Each structure stands twice: as structure tokens, then as C-alpha cells.
Amino acid sequence: MDKLVIHGKKPLKGTVEISGAKNAVLPMMTAALLTDGITIINKVPDLRDTRTMIRLLEIVGAGVEFENGTLKIDGSTVNKLEAPYDLVKTMRASFYVMGPLLGRFGEVKVSLPGGCAWGPRPVDFHLMGMEKLGANVTLEQGYILAQGSSLKGAHICFDFPSVGATGNVVMAAVLAKGTTVIEHAAKEPDIVQLCEMLNKMGAKISGLNTSTLTINGVDELNPVEMTVIPDRIEAGTFLMAGAALGDITLNHAEPDHLKTVLDKLEEFGAHYTTEPGKINIKKADKVNAVDVTTEVYPGFPTDLQAQWMALMSITDGQSIVTDTVYHDRFTHIPELNRLGANIFLHDNVATIQGTKSLKGAQVMSTDIRASASLILAGLMAEGQTDVSRIYHIDRGYEKIEEKFSSLGAEIYRVSE
Ligand code: EPZ
Q1: 3-state SS class at 23
Q2: Residue 293: left (phi > 0), alpha (psi -120 to 50), or beta?
Q3: Residues 87-118: pLDDT tens digits?
């Protein structure tokens, strides 16, 4: 397994290109299964997760070509309506094939995703939505079997604005007969782009950027060409690095997707300027402890919670970080404390007592964003930090050590 070796406290300066958004492109890739033509998607990041989704599309029979960030997906050869356990257990987003295959072919068999590093991740909202649309949903030896040859529009209300359930149910509803209304829908930019793609394919979805989506079913959808939006979570990660260590300009970034995060970075003491597609951030002269509570979009994203904790570790005050989306997403805390952070957790509320400086150590990644948090901490720490099990980071960050090295960081990959 690879590890990253970091020699910290190097100033960061320069420009970094933000990749396409992982959490937008994954459902867009499965949306290509809704049509029998060739869908083209540009600015696709080369990640473990996008490679996993390519494998899944090939398993169901789609033709896939991936070159220089452009994906071509041929939905005309889909012939296997099943997502196997061995693949789904490595990536929960595999569950996104359920909506398209059920919607287009009337049946699908998907392995129930297991939990993840930080706890159970149920799919009950996804299944409730499919049943409301008229599918018969059963569980057989760890697989969800959904059958429904003629789905009908329904009124669906989620208990929580789930990103995945919203995307999955929209993709099942676009070919259903009649009108579907989804209340308490997710508004993340990833879901907005998915709906924009489906509308470009011929779907009739209204209410984008609101909590209520209305879908009028159509008979068929056509293949389209799309370009993935910038990854706001990768951008937020680099913004925090710049706020602590230097002067960084992000290219191919969307400031509108990061308003809450930019406000919090200003409170921290950093200075930023924006122009269309770009954000510049300069380090804080004096760093302030700033409380954060994660919320669904447009609130502070849970996917930046771990990274924010690393940043708060170097302030000289006390801050409170609360995660309201996942109450158990804190496996990074003991690892940050190995670097000299002083973080105490009670339920889903972490208290961070800032310290003058972190000290390098050996630490272990546990999930994508925890890894990013440990890399940030290593870049800010005195001495050497070794971050192991970085296959986690490779799931969601493209060429992360090259990008940080180009900004002046001393960071390199070592095979263990
Ligand atoms: C998406 O996961 C993202 N993944 C996650 O990013 C992100 O953390 C999450 O949304 C929240 O923003 C992708 O888009 C591929 P949810 P998803 O359904 O869709 C509960 C990363 O690091 N819930 O919005 O799985 C759930 O337990 C990843 O890139 C149910 O109870 O998240 C959680 O508490 C990690 N039942 C809350 O809703 C359900 O059926 C939000 O989950 C579905 C969800």
C-alpha cells in the first residue's frame, strides 16, 4: 500500500487546477444508462471512484471509453441488470445504477452497500422512492431486487434531503408515466447538474435549485454531451491549505458553490478574491478559532468537516465543530491528535483547543476526507508526517501530491 511523506511548514504559492466534481460525475455516468446512444462527458477526474464506476458500467454491458478526461458511454449494449457485491462494497455510489436500470428496463438487482469507515449508511429513502413509483422491492441474500415494468409518477417526501436518494429517484422517475413530485429533495450542485443533464437528454424536470422537484415522465431520452462542474470539496480543501500556508489561485473553481466556506475562511482571518471560474486566497496574518456546524447545501459541507478541524488545530483559541449530516464521521480525530492536535469529541460535537504548532508523526487514513484532513495537517506540521493507506485519498482527489508539490509543498508518494 502507498503512503504519502510530507515535510511540513513549506509556504504554498501558485496556481492549481481544480478537477471535475466526483460527486457530480458519478450519477451523470449512470444517467447514460437511460439512453441507447453514446453519451459524452468532459472534465471527468481520473479517480479510483470513477474507475470503479467505469467497471460497473462495463459489467452491466455498456461500452465505455475514457481518454484525456473525456468519457464516452454507449448505453445501447446494456444487457445485465445487476451490480455485484464485490464492486458495490468498494463504492456506495454504485447504488446509483438502480434508478436508471429500473426506469429503462423495469428491473434491477443491486447489492446492498455495506457501511463505511464511519458507520452505517442506509438506503431506505432510495427504496421508499422506488416503491412509491410502483416497483416491487425485496431483499434477497444481501441484494435489493426492484421490479416494475411500468413505473407511475408519485408524490415522494424524504425525511432528510438525501443526495443519493434524490439522484436515484429522479433517474427512476424521468421515464415513468405521469408526474412525480419529490419534496425535501437535495439541492447540492451535483444534483442540480444531474437534473440539467437529464433535461438536456429530453427529461422534463422543474424546481432545480429548490427543495421540490417536479418530474413529468417522457417516453425516451437521447444521448448528450456534458462538462462536469468543478469539485467544490477539492476546491475547499485547497482553499484551507492557502488560508494556512500561502497565496493560492484556484483555476476551474466555482465561488458560488463555496459561499459558506469562503465566509468561514474570512472569519478565520484569510483574504480571498473571486472572479468567474477562479478564487484566490491569501494566508491569514492572525488566525482565529471559528465554530462550524455542517448542513446540507448551501450550508457548510460535511465533506469539508475533517479538513476544517485540521485548520482549527493551529489557531490559538477554542472552536466547536458539529456534524449534523453524519453523527459519527470522526475517525480522523485520533489521527489528528497524534499530530499534536487537541480535539475532544462528545456525540457529534467536537471541541478543538488550538495549539501553536502541530508536530509530524505517522498517521493512517480512514476515508477520503479524513485523508485530506491528515494531508492538510501534515503540510502545517513541523517535521515529517507519513500518511498511510492513501488509497482512500485516491478515491476522491486527482494527483493530489503533484498539485501540492507544484505549489511548493514537500510531499511525495512512497510504496510501502
Ligand atoms: C453523498 O453521499 C456524497 N457522496 C457524500 O460524499 C456526502 O458526504 C453526502 O452526500 C452528504 O453530502 C456522493 O455523492 C457519491 P446522503 P450520500 O444520502 O448520497 C442519511 C465524499 O467524501 N440517509 O445525502 O450517500 C445518511 O445516513 C462522500 O465524497 C438515510 O438515512 O449521502 C446521512 O446521515 C462521502 N437513508 C444523510 O442521510 C438513505 O436512504 C445524508 O446522506 C439515504 C441517506
Answers
A1: helix
A2: beta
A3: 999 999 999 999 999 999 999 999 998 766 66
Residues of the chain with pLDDT under 70: 115-120
This model's pTM is above 0.85: yes
Per-residue pLDDT at 316: 87
Q: What is the DSSP letter of 367?
A: S
Query: Cell numbers at residue 250, please?
Result: 484556484
The alpha helices in 246-387, defined as continuous H runs, are 259-268, 305-312, 332-338, 368-380
- CA pair distance 112, 124, nearest whole angstrom: 11
Predicted local confidence at residue 124, as pLDDT: 94
What lines the ligand 1 site, CB under 6 Å?
Answer: 22-23, 26, 92-93, 121-126, 160, 162-165, 190, 302-303, 325-326, 368-369, 396
Kindly give the distance from the C-alpha atom of residue 12 to the centroid of ligand 1, in angstroms, as a whole number: 32
Query: How far apart, in whole angstroms, are the C-alpha atoms of residue 13 and residue 238?
Result: 11
CA distances from 94 to 33, 81, 251, 354 (A): 13, 13, 30, 39
- Cα 87 from Cα 113, distance rounded (Å): 9
| Burial class for 288, CB neighbours closer than 10 Å (0-12, 13-18, 19+) | middle
Q: Which of 29, 108, 116, 154 is the catalytic position? A: 116
Whose cell is 468519457? That residue is 71
Helices and strands in the chain: count of H runs, count of E runs: 14, 24
| Chain segment 118-151, per-residue pLDDT in tens | 666 789 999 999 999 999 999 999 999 999 999 9
Helix (H, G, I), strand (E, B) or coil at 253: coil
Domains of the chain, each with CATH number or no CATH: 2-19+230-415 (3.65.10.10), 22-227 (3.65.10.10)
In this predicted structure, what is the pLDDT of residue 115? 67
Among 154, 162, 164, residue whose Cα is nearest residue 132: 154
157 tagged catalytic: no
**Nearest-angstrom CA–CA distance, 57 and 78:** 8
* Predicted local confidence at residue 416, as pLDDT: 76
Measured in Å, residue 15 CA sits from the centre of ligand 1 at 31
199-228 residue pLDDT tens: 999 999 999 999 999 999 999 999 999 999
